[in-house]
Amino acid sequence: MKEFFGFGGYQRDAEGYFSWQHIAFVTALMVIMVTLAIYFGMENRHKDDKAKNKVLIWSAILIDSFELFKIVLLCIRANDPLDWIYSLPLFLCSIQLITIPLAAFSKGRLKEAALDFVFIFGILGAVMGTYLAGNNYSSYPVLSFDNVVSGITHSISGFASLYIVISGMESMKRKNIIISFSILLSFCIMAYTANVLIPYNYMFLMKGDGTPYDIIYNLVGGNAVLYPLIVVALFIIYISAFYYVYYLIKEKATKEKSAEI
């Protein structure tokens, strides 16, 4: 147990990024994530909003509980009560620590926007935080506290994203697009500020750190201005493309339904 939690440092070597152990572990997480999302989504699809929301409430409780436990243990492990400053919810994936509870507990337009934000970024975060997390799987053994908890929280984000669309909770209203952009840009500003003050690498705005962002970092030669601007621009392009594809699919489905009638 001491070795699993990493007290005194891991004695095992990391199996490595894209090792078979890495792929097998995260694939198992993804299978569980998709299976549960389909099961609960189909189970609640025709129920009222209150019944649908219960699943999101549990998702919010679980993801924040795992993250809080991780932060406390990391502070104990580092013997530093201020170690939490390196675990702030300022990565793209960890924004879900705030938006999933917002989606579960808020009301009105804010709830709609939070549901859409989780839908848009949850599955992306799940993939990036598991298959593409070169920063974690190059540094820690696959079956270690750092990777297991990270895998679980990213999988919960992906689960919430899939559950929202399968159960029919998404709205994707055009009037809420500005809120999605505002949430993202606000976190980018906070992340960059934290990176300068701590310093750290939240949202990977300072360097790629073993992730696919390294491609962009290398393309611009590590330029301190161009690199973060391109990363933020990619986030914005992703949101825009997601909305565009969603509307295309909905429009096609509507036309096919009309043709059948």
Explain what the structure shows.
It is globular and about 65 Å long. The protein has helices at residues 2-5, 20-44, 49-78, 96-105, 108-128, 134-137, 145-166, 177-197, 213-219, 226-260. The chain is mostly helical and 261 residues long. The N and C termini lie far apart (61 Å). It is 69% helix and 0% strand.
Describe the structure concisely.
With 261 residues, the chain is mainly α. It has helices at residues 2-5, 20-44, 49-78, 96-105, 108-128, 134-137, 145-166, 177-197, 213-219, 226-260.
Whole-number mean pLDDT:
94
Shape type: globular
Q: From the alpha-carbon coordinates, what is the Rg to the nearest angstrom?
A: 19 Å
Task: Give the total of beta strands.
Answer: 0
Q: What composes the largest sheet?
A: none
Low-confidence stretches: none
List the helices and strands and how they pair.
Blueprint: H1 2-5, H2 20-44, H3 49-78, H4 96-105, H5 108-128, H6 134-137, H7 145-166, H8 177-197, H9 213-219, H10 226-260
Helix pairs in contact: 2-7, 3-4, 3-7, 4-5, 5-7, 5-8, 8-10
Keywords:
261 residues
